[in-house]
Write a sequence for this structure.
């Protein structure tokens, strides 16, 4: 598998996954029913949840390549911070301080006087406010008043970054055999937890999400170590889909969903896509699509009560496309250039042992 940004469809797949999240949420936000989302009535994972697992697998793959190129902890953290926070902060400012006072039922004066507004911003900034609410905002919407629900996955994403960095610091990442031993051990622990954990739906649901995301990320990291040998044909891709159908809506689905997603991503990543591949390699709109999709749709649902999922999807995607492109063009891309200059400057000042040879990964 070619990991150069011009040699695979990973950026395109991330964009399609982000669009899939918007599609899935268009059903949820117009009905208020979780099971209304595509695939939700037949599998434990609906379309949006599957898309998020795609994100985690691809992140494990590309972040591992980044860590192999530059294993210095400070550089790695700086790169991750510049990837997540610049676009997130701009999104929070626009949603909390522009959209919020325009749509809140109490009016701008009451809105800004509410300490909950500032508390929400602070929690979302540190990645713990994704499912938070603000009084008077989206209160009557069918899915409830959540301001930007998808942000709740970002803390798990950053936790995976830190976990990978910890494995690197312990000498368990660069050595392929040691890393695969860690992956197998973690998979065994996850299997036991999935099989025997009792409890109420809430803690068990949280555990399932943690296992889904972390296993997908570790599988992506493992795939990095073998990327030169990864080839997935239509037979294997079809067999993987059949497997997930056979174990659907059981705890085994949570165990196998990461590997199945990984197989499909690898199969799709190498399909020739010509112009689409080149454009998405240069324009990474997936993150902006993901973080703007929910608040834009919530605003439309509030302004147009009773709107159906199809017109919501069309209107929402049109607005989100503009916001995502603007976010990438004026925030994300400059942040990437800053990251390149910063890390390049550090690299010239501080000699380091050359990392294992590998192709340049898709920027992340």
């Amino acid at each position: 598998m070619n990991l150069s940004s011009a040699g695979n469809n990973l950026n395109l797949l991330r964009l399609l996954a982000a669009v899939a999240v918007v599609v899935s949420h268009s059903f949820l936000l117009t009905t208020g029913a979780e099971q209304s989302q595509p695939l939700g009535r037949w599998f434990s994972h609906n379309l949006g949840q599957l898309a998020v697992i795609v994100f985690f697998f691809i992140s494990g793959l590309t972040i591992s390549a980044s860590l192999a190129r530059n294993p210095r902890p400070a550089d790695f953290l700086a790169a991750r911070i510049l990837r997540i926070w610049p676009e997130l902060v701009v999104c929070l400012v626009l949603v909390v301080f522009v959209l919020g006072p325009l749509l809140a039922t109490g009016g701008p004066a009451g809105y800004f006087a509410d300490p909950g507004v500032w508390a929400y911003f602070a929690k979302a900034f540190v990645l713990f406010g994704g499912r938070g609410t603000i009084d008077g905002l989206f209160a009557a919407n069918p899915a409830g008043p959540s301001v930007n629900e998808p942000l709740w996955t970002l803390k798990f994403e950053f936790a995976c970054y830190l976990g990978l960095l910890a494995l690197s610091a312990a000498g368990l990442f660069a050595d392929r055999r040691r890393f695969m031993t860690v992956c197998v051990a973690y998979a065994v622990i996850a299997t036991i937890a999935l099989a025997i954990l009792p409890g109420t739906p809430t803690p068990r649901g949280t555990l399932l999400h943690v296992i889904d995301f972390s296993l997908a990320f570790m599988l992506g990291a493992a795939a990095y170590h073998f990327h030169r040998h990864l080839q997935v044909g239509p037979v294997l891709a079809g067999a993987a889909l059949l497997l997930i159908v056979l174990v659907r809506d059981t705890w085994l689905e949570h165990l196998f969903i990461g590997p199945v997603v990984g197989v499909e991503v690898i199969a799709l990543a190498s399909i020739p896509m010509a112009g689409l591949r080149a454009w998405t390699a240069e324009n990474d709109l997936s993150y902006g699509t993901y973080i703007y999709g929910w608040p834009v749709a919530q605003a439309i649902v509030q302004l147009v009560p009773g709107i159906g999922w199809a017109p919501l999807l069309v209107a929402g995607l049109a607005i989100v496309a503009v916001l995502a492109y603007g976010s990438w063009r004026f925030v994300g891309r400059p942040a990437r250039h800053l990251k390149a200059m910063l890390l390049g400057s550090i690299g010239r000042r501080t000699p380091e042992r050359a990392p294992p040879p590998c192709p340049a990964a898709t920027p992340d």
Summary: Residues 309-349 form the longest helix (41 residues). The chain has 13 helices and no strands. Confidence is low (pLDDT under 50) at residues 348-363.
